[in-house]
UniProtKB/TrEMBL annotation:
UniProt-listed SUPFAM superfamilies: Lipocalins
InterPro entries according to UniProt: Calycin, Lipocalin_ApoD, Lipocalin_Blc-like_dom, Lipocln_cytosolic_FA-bd_dom
Source species: Miscanthus lutarioriparius
UniProt protein name: Lipocalin/cytosolic fatty-acid binding domain-containing protein
A Pfam family of this chain: Lipocalin_2
GO terms of biological process kind: lipid metabolic process; response to reactive oxygen species
Length: 195
């Protein structure tokens, strides 16, 4: 496993963040097995996943977030980069442009890798306010024992794990071009009103 170190969160508590993350191994597709839902995610989303691809500069990651809602594929693309290029902590910033159908407003958030296993098959990702939490895995399902360990780790970091929501995942997962795409950003407008 990548080394871990303590870092001060904005709330004043200590949060463990992975040090020495092997970015190349972290790249690829991860499904969101459990999540503390954010306002910008469709409430009825399923097969939610993120695909990470390292760009040619070796420092910027292309991020593609996808979910399926009411038979349509919703997605948003953005970038991720280290919050402090000189640090070995896995503290990244992610930037998306909204609304997705006319991407003109930059929105930047924190993406802290709190844990990743030795084989880079599971990850626990959060942010310093402890409002958003993601349990990621490479497969469409996660072993219950592993899941319980990740939940315990999240509790230790001060997260309210009662807010975790399971994301339904099909096996095999749908391909990106297997469903119509919501090109009008209807899901985004609905998400503003908690739907």
């Amino acid at each position: 496993m990548a080394a871990e170190g303590k870092t001060t969160a904005k709330s004043g508590g200590q949060m463990t963040v992975v040090r020495g993350l092997d970015v190349a191994r972290y790249m690829g597709r991860c499904v969101r097995d459990r999540v503390v839902p954010s306002f910008f995610q469709p409430r009825d989303g399923r097969d939610t996943r993120a695909t990470y691809r390292l760009l040619e500069d070796g420092a910027t990651v292309h991020v593609l977030n996808e979910t399926w809602s009411k038979g349509k594929r919703d997605y948003i693309e953005g970038t991720a980069y280290k919050a402090d290029a000189s640090s070995d902590e896995a503290k990244l910033k992610v930037k998306f442009y909204l609304p997705p159908f006319l991407p003109i407003i930059p929105v930047v958030g924190d993406y802290w890798v709190l844990y990743v296993d030795d084989d880079y098959q599971y990850a626990l990702v959060g942010e310093p306010r402890r409002k958003n939490l993601w349990i990621l895995c490479r497969k469409t399902s996660i072993d219950e024992e592993v899941y319980n360990q990740l939940v315990e780790r999240a509790k230790e970091e001060g997260y309210d794990v009662s807010k975790l929501h399971r994301t339904p995942q099909d096996d095999p997962p749908p391909e990106s071009d297997a469903a119509p795409t919501d090109t009008k950003g209807v899901w985004w407008f609905k998400s503003l009103f908690g739907k």
